Amino acid sequence: MSETTSVDAPAGWYPAGSHGRERYWDGVQWTGMVRDVAGAGRPGDSSMSGIEIPAEPGSDVAPSIKRPWYKRPLIAVPLGVVAAVILVSGIANAIGGGGEAEGSEARPAEAREQSADEPVAQKPAPVLVTMPDVVGMPGATATAVIEAAGLSVQTTGGEGDLAQPVVSTDPAASTRVEPGSTVTLTLQDKPQLTLGQRNATAKAQDYLSFMGFSRQGLIEQLQYEGYSVEDATFGADNAGADWNSEAAEKARDYLDSMAFSRDGLYDQLEYEGFPPEQIAFALAAVGY
């Protein structure tokens, strides 16, 4: 009788064919011990959970027992197969975007962190402008000079009157600044006038509105009106007169009333208090 030892079954009595007999399995092989089936609860009846009975009576095949799942041998996977699966998965990820989330975009080149060894591009330095010296100029003239240099202008002081002279600039003259920079001009404040100065100025403007006066002749006229020398002088100097134009106007007034030779007209203008340079201007203006 051939003995089979490949099945690990517990020792015991097992059915041997369909003749109501049992054969004893010693855990390794079949033995020669055979007995008639007697009673319940023996090995091989329905109470022996998990035991499979041989199909043929007297078979030399050892009974097999289904092992619980936790005692069954694991399927061995070769290490080379695992490595190949990992390699293929990595290639697929690289082709699909390196594991980037769907819809994400690669960072633009500009956003990448710059290497420490990579040179940084330097912006060219702007061509600087030299701040012109405009101190002492009237605000209007100074503004034109600065704007011609490519700079912007804002003013302060002087009650906003651009006829007032510039007393300081920010930045100062000769300073190098960028084109388009703003320059602040500080204008001289207008003096606080006394009542006598305000009235003398107004009276001087009244006289100049209807006849020509020299500076000296206007001061004397204001003194005749009762103003002090100081107030009369202030009024004549701040009435806004153009003394060359006043001399020419006076010359025309004399010629409108009577005929004058050049020398006679010269003497008459000199008598009115005009200085030589203003007289020369007036004679040229009337044709002498």
Kindly report the spatial arrangement of strands forming the biggest sheet. 1-2-3
The number of E-state strands comes to 10
| Beta-strand share of residues | 5-15%
Helix-strand string: EEEEEHEHEEEEHHHHHH
Give the low-confidence spans. Answer: 1-6, 40-58
Cα Rg: 63 Å
Mean pLDDT: 79
User: What is the count of DSSP helices, taking H or I runs of 4+ residues?
Assistant: 8
The profile of the biggest β sheet is: 3 strands, antiparallel
Helix-and-strand structural type:
alpha+beta
How many angstroms does the end-to-end distance come to? 166 Å
Instruction: Count structural domains.
Output: 3
Helix content: 25-40%
* Shape descriptor: rod-shaped
Give the gist of this structure:
The chain is of the alpha+beta class and 288 residues long. It contains 8 helices and 10 strands. It has helices spanning 79-95, 139-148, 195-210, 215-224, 229-237, 243-257, 262-271, 276-286; strands spanning 12-15, 21-25, 30-36, 51-52, 64-65, 129-130, 152-157, 166-170, 176-177, 182-187.
Structural features, described:
This protein has 288 residues and is of the alpha+beta class. The protein contains eight helices and ten strands. The protein has a three-stranded antiparallel sheet with strand order 1-2-3, with no helix packed on it. Strands 7-10-8 form a three-stranded mixed sheet, with helices on one face. Helix 3 (195-210) crosses helix 5 and helix 4 packs across helix 5. The longest helix is centred in the N-terminal third of the chain and has 17 residues, at 79-95. The N and C termini lie far apart (166 Å). Residues 1-6 and 40-58 have low confidence and may be disordered.
